[in-house]
Design a protein that fits this description.
The complex is a heterodimer. Chain A is of the alpha+beta class. Chain A folds into 3 domains: about 110 residues, no CATH class; about 120 residues, no CATH class; about 170 residues, no CATH class. Chain A is built from 14 helices and 12 strands. In chain A, α4 packs across α7. Chain A starts with 9 loop residues before the first helix and ends with a helix. Chain B is α/β, with parallel strands linked by helices. Chain B has 2 domains: about 220 residues, no CATH class; about 130 residues, GMP Synthetase, Chain A, domain 3 (2-Layer Sandwich). In chain B, the strands form 2 sheets. In chain B, strands 1, 2, 3, 4, 5, 6, 7, 8, 9 and 10 form a 10-stranded mixed β-sheet that branches. In chain B, α10 crosses α11. Classes of the chains: A alpha+beta, B alpha/beta. At the A-B interface, α9 and α13 of A face β1 of B.
């Protein structure tokens, strides 16, 4: 489209072009306001993304009273940006288009040759609600929402510190999603901030609809079952990590915030650990550790012991298992594998089905199906117990994505146990350990502070020491390590 | 290594895992779980008879569970052969499932086989990769066939019934020792020690004892197994049974070899007897030399309680001291008498020979020195437990 001459009405041209470029959407509003008899001010915005009250009560009224240019627009308001009218038409149109689709209201005064972009963004979304994936008994019930503005507020509410920094960037050539990097300037290591910034800047994608899109681009290694970035929907947890010098990445449109770097032991920590008494928190932390091992190794150890190493099983238990297996047609390995697959199917179906039906399905699947299978002699009762215990322990870890990792690992270990018994499980465990040791999250070894060892930090790893015995203002080993670089 | 080569290597490794799979894989239901093994050898024909008691899993017969229905909790199979290996393979004429010996809880050997010598059996047992040697060995007093075909009340699995009562007899009566497992017999014999292992026998039978209906019998002293009949211990020397020990002797033997446990004993006291519950605390052995001859000093520390002492109750500290001194003296004399008796039979139950071998390896004739060694026994007892009474009632209605 060529350059327009000044004599033509840029206001009506722009309005027309925007309408055409957006495909005449039903929520596009182009209002012509008449402050004077000879002057028309075009007001363009997307009805679905703006705060209509602000537009009606402040913008429209001040334009019609002819006080807008002298009033709010003149006061250097950060929500109002004026574009130079003399700029090339193409540039102006592009900027206006971008402003409209990001929830801004565009005012074009063609006669006086002025153009304002006013931030009136107020997209529909749910209000602050309890976090769905990380509920706690004691502690704040607020969770992040899909609205990044609200999320910023939830963090600011907890950290009233001038060093808190928010760096905004737009990622996604098609979606143009707002991504925000958050950190404490005085605590976060410069190397970490620079690394996160550069990794975010290097993302080349058409869309970012959830933080996992960003996660896959910026994590250190893709081929690993373990998450190397923590995702949380808890503002208190995010604030705690920011105060430890970590960097958070927020994406508009999702309540899940990414936090880097992440170390393995943090996957076992819940926000509630710090809201409970130290002894209780320590006990629960150990329960989580035991649950992790049970979730990953229980079925494989059962298969290995009942298929290859019967001499390891106590005699009474062996007799009991033998009695249960009388008449069961499948070998133990296939029995466990099939039950685990069925359990995963039931779980997935329960998640995807409408809520009311889903619950019924879970109950039918877990109890009726299991009991019927045992009674029919298809499956031994011990296998049902092992699979059920494994399924339950899977949900004990506070980070949902880590629970998914455990499911993958469990199947790998079942296969190893089925083919090679305890030898296979041991090989797999050694391989897993080697993999964990080699993993890094933004340059921090994944097993910090266990390997490399930092004994001072152990009081918040396997135990949660009472708060007075923890040194204040001491950053975790992972961050101290980055600061030394 | 290029990426493609690495991928190919990974695929090959995975395939190798598949190929190498399952060669030693077993299913529980393909096994016959042996809980008790027995061995007999006819001294005339030299034919071995091996007994295996196999758990019937259909009954869920564990130590806790009662068997269900009319099925027996265990089945006893017997097979004979000129060698143990032949007898072993002969089992497959009868057994529908693979023999699984890992869970065997005890091994019984008939008295006549033990008297001929158990070396070959122990060697055979040690050679088997799947045989356990951490299980007790017992000698059968009477017919091994009868013992192997006898059910036990309460603990439906006879192997469980035997092992649990061995533990109880050790802890509360000191009539068995801890080191009576197959490996102990081997290790101790290789050190030229004598070993005393328990004897087991079947109690008298009433009715049709081969029928599982004996479970309806209220008299539990019949139709079951018991450790010992009159004699409780078989003395084993160089893999061969050479004699027997009776209850009191057996207690003293276990006290003298330093076993830990408690026992009840009656001692002569002021013209009558007193019943004392004693607990062994420590046993020290020291080798001295006197006129070129070895002197073995045994120093025993025991604790006793008056809980069972209904005959006499010390009222003062002085009386208590006197009681302790009396017990020290009487028990030391009894122990000395026991030691002398066994030495006269040529049994070195106190392992004096191995002590000399360890402390004085250059002795020209250790056997001679061991037989000439003087034994000195010191006993030190201390009161550690009392009953609920401060003094005993004096009424006339007691034992004469």
């Amino acid at each position: 489209m060529g350059r327009r001459t000044k004599g033509r009405s840029i206001g009506s041209d722009l309005a027309g072009d925007i309408q055409t470029m957006l495909g005449s959407p039903p929520d596009l509003v182009c209002r012509s306001l008449i402050p004077d008899g000879d002057r028309i001010v075009q007001c363009i915005y997307l009805d679905s993304l703006v705060d209509k009250r602000t537009i009606d009560e402040f913008i429209v009224s001040s334009v019609q009273q002819n006080t807008f240019a002298e009033g709010p627009a003149a006061s250097g308001n950060q929500y109002i940006q004026e574009l130079p009218f003399t700029a090339p038409y193409e540039t102006l149109r592009q900027q206006v288009l971008q402003a409209v689709i990001t929830g801004k209201c565009v005012l074009i005064d063609a006669v006086r040759e002025r153009l304002w972009l006013i931030d009136t963004y107020n997209a529909p979304g749910r209000q602050v609600d309890e976090p769905k994936t990380e509920p706690t008994i004691r502690g704040p019930y607020e969770g992040f929402t899909e609205n990044i503005r609200i999320n910023i507020g939830l963090i600011r509410k907890r950290i009233a510190n001038p060093s808190l920094r928010f760096e905004q960037m737009t990622i996604g050539s098609q979606s143009g999603s707002t991504v925000m990097m958050v950190y404490m300037e005085n605590l976060a290591p410069e190397t970490l901030v620079r690394e996160v910034r550069s990794r975010l800047a290097a993302i080349r994608t058409d869309s970012v609809l959830e933080s996992s899109y960003v996660e896959e681009y910026i994590e250190d290694r893709i081929l690993t079952p373990f998450p190397t970035l923590l995702n949380t929907e808890r503002p208190d947890k995010t604030a705690a990590h920011l105060l430890e010098g970590k960097v958070a990445v927020m994406v508009n449109g999702t309540p899940f915030v990414l936090i880097a770097p992440l170390t393995f032991h943090e996957l076992f920590n819940s926000a509630e650990d710090y809201y409970q008494r130290a002894d209780i928190a320590t006990f629960i932390r150990w329960i989580r550790l035991i649950s992790f091992f049970a979730a990953v190794f229980a079925p494989s150890l059962f298969v290995a012991a009942t298929t290859f190493h019967l001499e390891l099983i106590p005699t009474e238990l062996l007799i009991s298992l033998s009695a249960q297996r009388e008449g069961v047609p499948l070998p133990a390995f296939l029995e466990v594998l099939l039950m685990e697959i069925v359990f995963e199917i039931i779980r997935e179906a329960g998640l995807r089905m409408p809520r009311a039906v889903g619950q019924a399905l879970s109950i039918v699947g877990a109890i009726v199906l299991g009991q019927a299978a045992v009674e029919a002699g298809l499956i031994s009762a011990a296998v049902v117990i092992v699979v059920a215990v494994t399924g339950i322990t899977n949900f004990v870890v506070p980070v949902y994505s880590f629970g998914m990792s455990q499911r993958l690992l469990r199947f790998t270990f079942i296969l190893l146990a089925g083919f090679m018994g305890l030898f296979g499980v041991l090989c797999g465990a050694l391989f897993l350990l080697a993999h964990l040791v080699s993993l890094k999250s933004f340059g921090v070894p994944y097993l910090t502070p266990l390997a490399p060892a930092s004994k001072d930090d152990w009081r918040d790893v396997l135990i949660r020491a009472p708060r007075p015995s923890m040194k204040p203002n001491v950053l975790p080993a992972s961050i101290r390590r980055l600061k030394r670089k | 290594m290029s990426r493609r080569q690495r991928a190919a290597a990974a695929v090959l490794a995975l395939c190798a895992a598949l190929l190498s799979s399952c060669w030693d894989k077993v299913e529980i239901n393909d096994l016959s779980l042996v809980s008790l093994a027995g061995l007999d050898r006819d001294p005339e024909s030299g034919i071995y008879t091996v007994y295996l008691q196999v758990i019937n899993p259909a009954t869920g017969a564990s130590a806790q569970d009662a068997p269900g229905g009319e099925q027996a909790p265990v089945y006893t199979y017997a097979a004979s052969g000129k060698s143990l290996a032949e007898a072993q393979v002969t089992f497959y004429k009868l057994l529908p499932r693979r023999m699984f010996l890992h869970h065997t809880k005890a091994v019984l050997i008939s008295e006549r086989a033990a008297k001929q010598g158990m070396r070959d059996f122990l060697n055979f047992s040690e050679l088997q990769p799947d045989a356990r040697t951490s299980i007790p060995l017992l000698i059968v007093d009477g017919s091994i066939d009868e013992v192997m075909r006898t059910f036990t009340p309460l603990d439906w699995n006879p192997a469980d019934a035997i092992t649990s009562r061995l533990n109880l007899l050790h802890d509360y009566a000191m009539m068995t020792g801890r080191r009576i497992e197959l490996r102990d017999v081997i290790e101790r014999t290789e050190r030229e020690e004598l070993i005393v292992i328990p004897l087991i026998s079947a109690t008298p039978k009433t009715g049709d004892h081969s029928n599982w209906d004996v479970k309806a019998e209220i008299n539990a002293n019949r139709n079951q197994l018991r450790v010992g009949r009159r004699a409780i211990g078989a003395v084993i020397e160089n893999y061969r049974m050479v004699g027997r020990l009776y209850e009191n002797d057996l207690i003293m033997y276990h006290v003298l070899i330093g076993e830990k446990g408690q026992f009840v004993r009656r001692f002569p006291f002021r013209g009558g007897h007193i019943t004392v519950i004693m607990k062994t605390k420590r046993m020290e052995r020291r080798l001295d030399w006197k006129a070129g001859k070895p002197v073995v000093r045994l120093r025993l520390r025991l604790e006793f309680s008056t809980i069972a002492m209904k005959e006499y109750f010390p009222q003062t500290l002085d009386e208590l001291k006197k009681l302790e001194q009396h017990l020290n003296q009487v028990f030391a004399e009894e122990l000395k008498t026991f030691v002398d008796k066994t030495r006269r039979k040529g049994w070195d139950l106190l392992r004096i020979r191995s002590l000399l071998h360890r402390k004085a390896p250059n002795l020209p004739d250790p056997d001679q020195a061991a037989s000439e060694a003087e034994i000195k026994i010191e006993v030190e007892t201390r009161l550690r437990g009392m009953g609920n009474l401060g003094r005993l009632y004096d009424g006339a209605g007691g034992e004469p």
